[in-house]
Amino acid sequence: MDYVIAVDIGGTQLRAALVTLTGELVLSERTATLVHEGAEAVLGRVLKLIELVRAVVLPNDRLLGLGIGAPGPLDPVTGMIYSPPNMPGWDAFPLRDRVAAATGLPVTLGNDANVAALGEWRFGRGQGLRHLVYLTVSTGIGGGIIVDGHLLLGRLGAAGEPGFLIVDQATGAIWEDLASGTALGREAAMQMPHYPDSALHKLATPATVTAAEVSLAAQQGDRLARQLMQREAHLLGMGFASMLHLFSPEILLVGGSVILHNPALLEAAREVAYANVRVPLYREVPILAASLGDHVGLLGAAALALQRID
């Protein structure tokens, strides 16, 4: 059997898996990131996870390479990570080369959102397509773009940052400032004092409320929460329409906790997008939930390793 190793580095969790060429996760392991302990300590935990999943490879099997998805900014060409906001102390850290030296494997490094796009393209709902937009809506808004069968990288691999699209001329607010899960929780906190009877007060305080509580209260029929979710659908849908115009994909896939836990939100945002495109043909583009769920980071890292082999 032929395999690759996939590594998904997050601000709170590290994961590694042994993956077949068809995207089957043979074995996966995880541990806490503990970013406060510094880059060297985190690297040590990454290498330990790699050892654990590598241990099940049999003598007659082939291990073809290793892919890593990590928070940006990073340079996929040099393999360097440059000060990710959620991983302090990683300034100009040569992650790819350090892992390659420790494992003896060819290693490929990619931005986590780009890697997720590759995963959906190779193993998920984007299979067989040449043009795809992948978006993730959670703490922020990220994404990856496949154009003409290639991942759009740009200078320093920094292309494809839809969350930074400026959407408010007066304030300079970017899309994720208004429509991310963090933004949804922030808007709820601002509105809760004006709605003392809202069910949100039974679930959280203005200081602690998150998108998850807003979603739950909306499902229970709470008026404020439903208004907040309608606002969220509008803001997401307008951004989706912009993505359709910018990249003309064959499919637009949306992942992240805010979307995956709220199917009705995606339906409403899709309607907003189709109502606001200026080219009617874009209404033919499916806007669907991403299909790989919690495995998208690992399968994306596997796809990254396989892309180098291809």
TrEMBL record:
InterPro entries: ATPase_NBD, ROK. It holds the Pfam family ROK. Gene3D superfamilies: 3.30.420.40. Coiled coil: none annotated. Transmembrane segments: none annotated. It comes from the Bacteria. Belongs to the ROK (NagC/XylR) family. PANTHER family: BIFUNCTIONAL UDP-N-ACETYLGLUCOSAMINE 2-EPIMERASE_N-ACETYLMANNOSAMINE KINASE, ROK (REPRESSOR, ORF, KINASE) FAMILY. This is ROK family protein. It comes from Candidatus Chloroploca mongolica.
